[in-house]
Structures are given as C-alpha cells and as structure tokens.
Amino acid sequence: MKIIFSDYALMQLEQIYYFLQNQNVNAAIHIHNFILDEIEKLRNFPQMAAIEPELLSFSHIYRSLVVRKRYKVVYYLEKDIIHISAIFDCRQNPKKLRDVIYQ
Predict the structure, then answer these.
(1) For residue 15, is it within any domain?
(2) Phi (first) and psi of residue 89, to 5 degrees
(3) What is the pLDDT of residues 24-53, one digit of tens each?
(4) What is the 3-state secondary structure (H, E, C) of the chain?
(5) Does 95 reside within a domain?
(6) Which of 83, 74, 79 is nearest to 51 (CA)?
(7) CA of 22: how far to CAs of 15, 17, 50, 71, 90, in Å?
(8) Domain containing 85: what range?
C-alpha cells in the first residue's frame, strides 16, 4: 500500500516536532519518528485503527490511529492508497477534528 500525506498533515507533524524541539530536541526526534513508524504499520494493516466517530458524516470512512495517547493519525483508504489527512492532538476538543478535515 502507498501512503500519501496531505499538506495539512505534514504541516501538523512539523508543528509537533518544532513545539517539542523547544522543550527537548531528543524528545522531538523520538516522537516524530515514533509517529512515522506507527503510520508505516498501516501498510500491512490498513484497517487496524478504529473508525473515527466524529467524522461519520463525511464522504470517506475515516479511521484514527492513536499514537502515544496524545495524537490521532486520521486517514482514509482509497483502493491501495492510505491518505493521511491529519495528525490531531487529542488534548483538543474532539469536535475541532471536523474543522480540520477537508472533504
């Protein structure tokens, strides 16, 4: 399976890195790489994450892979492509997730 990141998801991953970098460079690198490693697991198990209930009314079936209890990797499947739409910080209001996903 091929993995494609939206520009927004890449920007969020970058923001996570730079936010953590100000506190601890090693932690920033570790979390960044850990998120990417978890996303890589989707190649073999694309349906391993739960369907995201907050996005049920959207045109795609979105799934959320929770990483370290703090981040959600929000994605949908289309044929043999995994589309990463967002990397959402779970400490935010879950209803905000609807605003960051573009249909």
Answers:
(1) yes
(2) -80, 120
(3) 999 999 999 999 999 999 999 999 999 999
(4) CEEEECHHHHHHHHHHHHHHHCCCHHHHHHHHHHHHHHHHHHHCCCCCCEECHHHCCCCCCEEEEEECCCEEEEEEEECCEEEEEEEEECCCCCCHHHHHCCC
(5) no
(6) 74
(7) 11, 9, 32, 19, 20
(8) 2-90
CATH code, domain with 43? 3.30.2310.20
- 72 found inside a domain: yes
The verdict on residue 101 lying in a domain is: no
The model carries a pTM of: 0.90
3: left (phi over 0), alpha (psi -120 to 50) or beta: beta
Structure tokens at 75: 């994605």
Residue 103, pLDDT score: 46
Please count the structural domains in the chain: 1
Query: In 3D, which of 7, 4, 94 has the Cα closest to residue 42?
Result: 4
